Amino acid sequence: MNKFDLAIIGSGPCGYVAAIRAAQLGLKVCVFEKDRVGGVCLNWGCIPTKALSASSEALYNIERAAEFGIDVKDYNVDFQKVCERKNNIVKKLISGIEMLMKARKISLVRANAQIKGNGRIVAGSREFEAKDILIASGSIPFELPGMPFDGQQILSSTDILKLQKIPKSIIIVGGGVIGCEFASIFRTFGSEITIVEMMEQLLPAEDEEVARKIEQVFKKKGINIFTRKRVETLEKKGDSVNAVLSDGKSISGEKVLICVGRSPNSKGLGIEGIGMECDKGWIKTDETFRTNIENIYAAGDVRGGILLAHVASQEGIAAVEGMCGKKAGLDYNVVPNCIFTHPEIASVGLTEKKAKAQGLDARSRKFLFSAIGKAHVLGETDGFIKLVVDNKTDKILGAQIIGPCATELIGEFSPCVQFGITSENLASVIHAHPTLSEAIQEAAEAVHDKAIHSL
User: Fold this and answer.
1) Reported confidence tier of residue 1, pLDDT bands at 50, 70, 90
2) Class of domain 2-141+263-330
3) pTM of the model
4) pLDDT at position 442 over 80
5) In the chain, where are the structural domains located?
6) 154-260 belongs to which homologous superfamily?
7) Catalytic residue among 310, 342, 376, 433, which?
8) What CATH number labels 334-446?
9) 433 counts as catalytic
10) Most CB within 10 Å of its CB: which of 101, 107, 164, 285?
């Protein structure tokens, strides 16, 4: 029998990161992967989506080249090459992970794993034994009742990445992060886009003002938006799909993308047979990521909570370090959230509304990118930074950004929230000119009505 200190099921951003940390700590590790190394994030999520986003951004910049005094003629979108680039990036990163695992002497078992209890795992015809087991099997797209994915016309977020040509039109069911990202990408590529969101705003979890701004930008781009509406039925009619909304309105599109959430990827692991506690498939754990079975842990998407790759990675590390006697657990109040629309959106910590709901004496101040020289240089003046602070302590409670490079700029606010830095402290930090980061300093100064480039 093959014996290990730790067996990990899944090689996504939780599983492979946990495996590397475990190997660094001296454990003998094996990883089970039934599909592709890298999991959803690398193969069917973060990386391929952002590769498409980068291509659409390149197209956007070509189309507005005249603004920069450059005359571009006779260009076209070769979507096959766009997809080839995406796939090559994925392959290269998979090879990188495999190399890291091999260098750490981590055994990779390419087979479906089933837990049999007492540290036993069966994969194909082989049996393995491990002191501890970490389930990091991730999540899959949620399928709406009566609207099954067919991979052709009714698509999941995985299916849409397999398209070989740009659809003429797409109905996107769900105006959350995934829906808005694909709306931004394919609208730039020329698809007619309609978003249907059942909540009052796009991006329901984000700051209301940010949501209003992205809706305004989307409408300006020609994206049709229906909020407070549900899709009741879908009917295929030849090369199109007809959707009937909750208000009786009927709309049609060549493709329908359904992105209304995720489901736990916990079926087929054998957890039912060993009495593991779950909630609708989501695996229950304590704060150390231990399940109700002593030597079995779960981390990442499969346990629910915040379904983000960087959270999954940190949970994997925390779970492994906890097994080795180190402090486990994470502060989920300081998780940055990034949305790769155009313009980008990012946030960390609390919005003003959420802060007040928690009984905090909070206020927010906003600073526009249009007041920053670098934004004009880039031709990207839409958007703002909003800073939320505690009135009593001046500590930064949260930040929300919509605008150029928001997903990069948010990284400066994360340590501010995590370590309780005050807006006055942040305002005292000299930021280089001309850069977009100057807006961070100005936003901090705006808290005390000291912003130089704002009335």
Assistant:
1) low
2) alpha beta
3) 0.95
4) yes
5) 2-141+263-330, 154-260, 334-446
6) FAD/NAD(P)-binding domain (3.50.50.60)
7) 433
8) 3.30.390.30
9) yes
10) 285
